Amino acid sequence: MAVRKILMALPLILAPLAAWPIYVGVQVEQAMQEPQSVQVGELWVQHLPQHYERTHYSADAGSFLEVRDGDIEVRLELQHRVRHRILGAELETRLVDVHVNEETPPGLREALLRAQPNAESWVGLGGGVNVRLQTRPFSLQWPMDTGATDTVSILDLADGRGGLAYTRERIVLSFDTPRISISDGARVLEVDGAHYGLLVHPGPGGDYVTLPDYDLSLGAEEVRLREGESERLAMRSLWVAAWQNSAHERLDSVFRLKVGTIDAPPIALQAIDVHLSALRLSRGALLTLMQNLEGLRLEDVPLEARSGLAWGIAFETLKEMAAGDPLFQAGMHLNPDSGRRLSVAADLALKNDRELLDTRPLEAIVLGLEIETGREAMAELESLFRASGLLEEGAGDVFEQWLEHALSEGWVLESSDGLQTRLRLEDGRLYINGEDRTLLWLATVFAIGGGMF
């Protein structure tokens, strides 16, 4: 009896399950028939459907993916195989052809066709898209029509794997490849184990165009620059991270660079860590600055007035920024636990006082700087200056003489651990290692100002 009831109920259960993918197919067809576009900064991406042939549980479709960056326009002709599922649809996409305009670098079309990118995608009922991308190795040469004296550059990219996830709330991009090589005949730049990742959220205005929130990550296992038989640069365990976040019309932006080792003869560095931060910036002031710069026509401004105009725009922006108590921070640390160590920490703040900025701008600045280094690092710095030509061959021990003068004047302090300097600027007064050096500060400002004050 119970078995018969179950058998009688099965059609009521199976019928909706069998019909549901058909319903999903109708929804997916309607979604894919709508053109979609998004702009991230200067990059414009648009998806244009061409045809869609649906059966109960699958479909064949064609579309164009247009990518524009400035004057460069690339149109990818795509073919899709669609399978309807319970919560969405799976797509297999392959590249059919590539169309480019005249401004596109020569050879890009052929390189894309050789790469043969293919993708597996998931389109959900809510409209979100997730894509897994694969490419084959390819090479790109530019310029293509070289003369006898032209320098030819060649980009070689190994097979790659990437991903894309898109919703109205965020965009996620990623790409990994085991090797990238760029050569111009004389020099070769090689990158092993390259990684790229980007997460973008729309700004308060709901778009991705102007000052969006983002989280960027770049990395490489090893980077080498060779010139002939000589290796000019080698970096290992390279990692770059940057993010930007908006909240309550305030903008925070952070950049960080970490490298395991850098070998650039005669310099060898370990455990490099560099960071830059701009916190509590006024988003409105930045947008106004960008609009002013975009609408500025320097050719209409007399040459002698351009520097004053630039100072004026920058100063007005600073006054708007001061309302949010902005803070700028920077730091660099390398070669820890050795006589070659170097540590730099700096912070710059603006007081929230527009009258003070208008009348006594130097008193509105709060600056702190701390530098610690070993003696060996100073010797390497002098060697670098000489190798780069910043110190002439006949200059003698000018670097050592300057250091001894700085020690005698108290600008630099010496201890058993090395050398250090602490600088503080506040209320218009400059302190170096606790000593008031305001007259030196004012003389420096007037010298840099060149008569502006």
Describe the protein in words.
- There is one protein chain.
- The radius of gyration is 30 Å and the shape is globular.
- It has a 23-stranded antiparallel β-sheet that branches.
- It is of the alpha+beta class and 453 residues long.
- The longest helix is centred in the N-terminal third of the chain and has 31 residues.
- The protein has 8 helices and 23 strands.
- A hairpin with a 4-residue loop joins strand 6 and strand 7.
Summary of the model, kept short:
This protein has helices at residues 2-32, 108-115, 283-294, 303-322, 354-359, 375-388, 398-409, 438-449; strands at residues 36-40, 43-54, 58-69, 72-84, 88-100, 118-124, 129-135, 138-142, 153-157, 160-166, 171-183, 187-201, 213-227, 230-247, 250-264, 267-282, 327-334, 342-350, 365-373, 413-415, 418-426, 429-432, 435-436.
Poorly predicted segments: 3-18
Mean pLDDT over all positions? 82
Proportion of beta-strand residues: over 45%
Radius of gyration equals 30 Å
* Largest beta-sheet details: 23 strands, antiparallel
Overall form: globular
Helix/strand/pairing category:
alpha+beta
What is the distance, rounded to the nearest whole angstrom, between the alpha carbons of the first and last residues?
101 Å
Query: Would you count the extended β strands for me?
Result: 23
